[in-house]
Amino acid sequence: MQIEIKMLNVNDGDAIIVCLSDSAKHLVVLIDGGHKNDDKEVIKQLKPFLTNTGKLAPDLIICTHYDTDHIAGLLGVIDYYGKNIGEVWLHHPGISVLKLFDLLSSSYNPLAEPRSLSLDQRSEVHMLREQLSEANLLVEGTLVIESYADLQKLVPLIKSYEIKLKEPFFGDCVLADWPELEILGPTKDFYKELFPQDQSISDLIMDQAMYSKELKEKLKLNEKLLTDACRYLDTKTKDKVTKVNQASVILLITVEENKYLFTGDASLESFLNIPAYKNKLRNLYWLKVPHHGSHNNISSELIQTMSPKYAYISGKIHFDAEVKDCLENKNAIVQVTCIEEGHLIFKK
């Protein structure tokens, strides 16, 4: 069996094409779709894979999580291929997404006048606006809200084309005829911990928005790192990772005993919550480094466990040099989209 992976250069977003070929049998998978304006490039890059395998659309589309740099481009992709798509795997929180847009209006502007709200909803709007204003997060909050807008549009779009839609959890979403694919995370229990049924929308938005602020204020790395990049990686203060990122789908593909791991924006806690995680993650052949190479989502111990032969990073703003250096110190061959300034291709 052969595998080809194409990681598209969509800055700090993810759009990854995976093609498995076994004699006359082929599987084309798209993992995430990048930003809103990346859909045309994703479609362009999918075309040769589909032509070469005689397919009209991807067999499987996975949205690892609904941050806008992963989900927004999928709207155009799914609308383009429509009913020819095999399946879509996607999570969404256990809250009323529609309520969010009633709270903040169709323009997604926290300052807009709420429409047709109950007394409780008006109270929540008032509290949310105060929180966003006090934290100076109106711009970042609006960006966060856009990811919910994408989610709100995407699910009905998938259903309108009658595409099979599944929520991927550990041990679920087995793809017919392709046992090589395995969902490692999140487990249903871990997901419920991240998104309890009684969680308020304002809490969820603030969780996302505060992270946006931390990113905006992030200092550039001192180019003169410590001699031991792995030690620097572990001692550097780690910022908060959002619950949405922690809930990223973690996909393992095993081809002829070689393990290929796709991680979305998963956090250290996400990996620790994989049942028997050390066994599952040990000695990877190929790794999609989590969260665009951010130091917040990985440690030297995890890198040592994974020991990937190849590590690919779709990063720019989030990318931290010590992650790359630590991986290379552990003998990984590392490629980064912002350094290569182009799409990354891996074949075996």
Structural write-up:
- With 348 residues, this protein is α/β, with parallel strands linked by helices.
- 40% of the residues lie in helices and 17% in strands.
- It has 14 helices and 13 strands.
- It has a seven-stranded mixed beta sheet, covered by helices on one side.
- Helix 2 runs parallel beside helix 5.
- The longest helix is centred in the middle third of the chain and has 23 residues, at 138-160.
- Residues 104-114, 135-142 and 213-226 have low confidence and may be disordered.
Briefly summarize what is shown:
The chain is of the alpha/beta class and 348 residues long.
Radius of gyration: 20 Å
Q: Which outline best applies?
A: globular
Counted by DSSP, the helix tally is 14
Q: Which band does the percent of strand residues land in?
A: 15-25%
Number-wise, the strands total 13
Tell me about the largest β-sheet. 7 strands, mixed
Distance between the termini: 9 Å
Q: How would you write the strand order of the largest sheet?
A: 6-5-4-3-2-1-13
Which ranges are low-confidence, i.e. pLDDT below 50, for 5 or more consecutive residues? 104-114, 135-142, 213-226
* String of helices and strands: EEEHEHEHHHEEHHHHEEHHEHEHEHE
Oligomer classification: single chain
Structural class: alpha/beta
Q: Helix fraction?
A: 40-55%
Name the average pLDDT: 84
